[in-house]
Amino acid sequence: MEAMEVQTVVQVTPLGSRSAELDEPEDLEKRAFELRQQLEAVEEQLGKREAGSFEEYFATSYTRLLRDRLPWLVGLLLLQSSAALIMGTFENLLDKHLVIAFFVPMIVGTGGNAGNQPGVMTTRALSRGTFDSHKLHKLVRRETLLALVTGTLLAVLAFLRVLLQYPSKIKEAGAISIAVFLMVNLAIFIGVAFSIVIDRTGADPANGAAPLLTTVADLVGITLLCAVAALLLSA
Amino acid sequence: MEAMEVQTVVQVTPLGSRSAELDEPEDLEKRAFELRQQLEAVEEQLGKREAGSFEEYFATSYTRLLRDRLPWLVGLLLLQSSAALIMGTFENLLDKHLVIAFFVPMIVGTGGNAGNQPGVMTTRALSRGTFDSHKLHKLVRRETLLALVTGTLLAVLAFLRVLLQYPSKIKEAGAISIAVFLMVNLAIFIGVAFSIVIDRTGADPANGAAPLLTTVADLVGITLLCAVAALLLSA
């Protein structure tokens, strides 16, 4: 209640009549802060009636929730099961070198994490300014260098990690290490490209596009690992 | 520019002097909309100087970016490599029933997706209203029922999917199917619990907590699958 009293003192300057000095960063920050405060107060009053609230969720029927959730889960499960098709294709290889299969979750997870960081960065930056081909080139140049460095370091780490558990499996460690390097480089660009596409199309990434991307990236990672292993270990 | 002209017409009502009728949902919505419009205009002017913008990213050195990103990637890679330790423990089982390893990505992915949906829902609802133990009980009751239904349907689907590729491996299909059921039920609660913890602690879930959760959930899923398979297939 006290906060409300304080807020009444804040002088609201209509946008049209603002003075020239309001263009200073400090004044703009102050103005944005005031507006955010007012918006929060109004939204709090609205809170219980807004979309996405617990009240709305509790009022939604089970069948409605299932109809919203199940199609995605079913579709993604079937898509993810393609991993079994890919790995099944390399059954002889994996049967002989089971250790490759043991490191599938590590490759897949590292790809996801490596792609997520520049992806989140790009999404945030896109929501906070303009984007043009000049910035895109600069972004790609920077991320290429970062991917090469990151990929190399993680590849060395993965190599040592495999040898730690299986000291005699140097060839397998090499294949896993190369797959990590390729996956990190690929994932960073998938992350940036995906963020730009989502921004351009205006889709809500939380709504299924993100898990879809993760699943596709996972399948790419598994294919990469099996292909590299087949090349190195069949020789 | 035209949009700016229009905005100057909008009458800004200071919060303190608003009339009683403003408490009507429609008026509150209108007021929130006006405030959001003004905030966006101010933020647009601020845009290029704000945290998270491309300008800020381009001004950040490579070493700074690597120092921000690498520790997470290294830590998560090492944590994810625990999957190889778990699967290595079940080496004899996986050697005899390689098909179990082929469906690890499907189990792990389905767990992630199943937990993500109620997790996002809970996070959104928490940001839009109050939360108490009554609502928590109701939420858990609803999600338990949803998890049982969702888990059962996905388990049947997984069973059929395994048989489609390996018609003779009924026991393996059964183990994978049971693991899917358990994983979905567990994942939904991990998702809800995680959202509540994040909300209480005020941490930014994008910052590493989310990939950490995913990784831990992945390891739980792999352990579940191997344990169920060991129980069913060793008999």
N to C succession of SSEs of chain A: HHHHHHHHHHH
Count of DSSP helices of chain A?
11
Distance between the first and last residues' Cα of chain A: 75 Å
Rg for CA atoms of chain A: 25 Å
**Globular, elongated, flat, extended or rod-shaped: what is the shape of chain A?**
globular
Say what oligomer this is.
Answer: homodimer
How many β strands of chain A by DSSP?
A: 0
Outline the structure in words.
Two copies of one chain form a homodimer. Chain A is mainly α and 235 residues long. Chain A folds into two domains: 2-54; 70-233, SLC41 divalent cation transporters, integral membrane domain (Tetracycline Repressor, domain 2, Orthogonal Bundle), CATH 1.10.357. Helix content of chain A is 80%, strand content 0%. Chain A has eleven helices and no strands. Chain A has helices spanning 2-9, 25-46, 54-59, 62-80, 82-89, 91-96, 98-102, 104-126, 133-165, 170-201, 209-233. In chain A, helix 9 packs antiparallel against helix 10 and helix 10 (170-201) runs antiparallel to helix 11. Chain A is globular, with a radius of gyration of 25 Å. Chain A starts with a helix and ends with a helix. At the A-B interface, helix 1, helix 2, helix 3, helix 4 and helix 5 of A face helix 1, helix 2, helix 3, helix 4 and helix 5 of B.
